[in-house]
């Protein structure tokens, strides 16, 4: 009977996980912004932009779970041992709430593609509701992330950028929320405001892209640290 050789792979360092998280959020944000642009030409099928949203949401969700992994990694050994019943940090709570929102965006964007020719009522239930709840989750997560103690932990590798990252993310969440409200569809098939729907999504995505870049790509390599254990 053959024996497996022990793995020689080294664990992923915090700086690598930070970069991967930032890059994945950047890609997801870019695809959301692209989705808006792809829907502007009047003769282009709406499904083209819809598919860009759907793929972007997958990247958002992937990055969201990476953010959870980072938050868990930054906990002390004692707090990690008490999960999931205890030991939660504000950073971990924010990451989980954010990931809940990204999952709803997956539901929202997939349903959007599948219900393009459906009635306004179907679109409101299948698309608008998860979009709105997901946007609320992003707002809550961004609000938690503004707390100084949360930012100190999450942005420990870029303390000089922490304020910018937190507030740009909040701006993106507010814009996504405006987009969600504006996209409510009346019985005649018209949304509350197509202009605000597109503007909120596009500029919100740009905000998330900038914040993700600031988070994942410090100006100097030395700014990245591999602080695995954080004091309680």
UniProtKB/TrEMBL annotation:
Keyword Transcription regulation: no
Name of this chain's protein: YrhK-like protein
Coiled coil: none
Bilayer-spanning residue ranges: 21-40, 46-72, 92-114, 134-153, 165-187, 193-215
Species of origin: Serinibacter salmoneus
Keyword Transmembrane set for record: yes
Keywords from the named record: Membrane, Transmembrane, Transmembrane helix
């Amino acid at each position: 009977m053959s024996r497996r050789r022990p793995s020689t792979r080294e664990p992923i360092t915090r700086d690598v996980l930070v970069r991967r998280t930032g890059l994945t959020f950047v890609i997801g944000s870019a695809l959301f912004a692209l989705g808006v642009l792809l829907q502007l030409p009047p003769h282009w099928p709406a499904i083209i932009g819809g598919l860009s949203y759907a793929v972007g949401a997958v990247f958002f969700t992937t990055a969201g779970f990476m953010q959870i992994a980072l938050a868990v990694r930054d906990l002390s050994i004692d707090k990690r041992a008490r999960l999931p019943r205890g030991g939660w940090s504000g950073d971990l709570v924010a990451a989980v709430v954010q990931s809940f929102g990204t999952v709803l965006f997956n539901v929202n964007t997939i349903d959007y593609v599948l219900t393009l020719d459906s009635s306004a009522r179907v679109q409101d239930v299948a698309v608008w509701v998860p979009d709105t709840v997901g946007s609320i989750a992003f707002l809550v997560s961004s609000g938690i992330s503004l707390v100084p103690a949360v930012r100190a932990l999450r942005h420990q590798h870029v303390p000089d950028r922490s304020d910018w990252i937190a507030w740009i993310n909040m701006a993106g969440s507010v814009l996504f929320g405006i987009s969600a409200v504006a996209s409510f569809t009346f019985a005649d098939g018209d949304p509350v405001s197509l202009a605000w729907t597109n503007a909120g999504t596009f500029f919100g995505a740009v905000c998330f892209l900038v914040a993700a870049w600031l988070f994942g790509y410090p100006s100097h390599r030395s700014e990245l640290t591999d602080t695995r254990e954080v004091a309680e």
